[in-house]
Input
Amino acid sequence: MSDAPEVKPPVVTPVRVVIALCLVAPFVAMLWVGSYAKIDPTFIGIPFFYWYQMLWVLISTALTMLAYKLWQRDQRARGTQGGGAAQ
Output
């Protein structure tokens, strides 16, 4: 056993910032109602208000999947840095 202090990886990393942005972006987009509270432009007869929200369902799904995959990769990397020990 070594007397060297254990070095822990930083809590805030660029990957974790990207994860947070992926999870926060849909909330910001939906809470900023003034940006999409209009009828035009219509898409196949559907007012902008509705198709914009439905588009964000798909975008949110993709961003959440991306955040999850990044989180898994980050957790695996942290596990190998700690000598393979579970944290």
The two ends are 18 Å apart (CA to CA). DSSP finds two helices and no strands in the chain. Residues 48-81 form the longest helix (34 residues). Residues 22 and 63 are 5 Å apart (CA to CA).
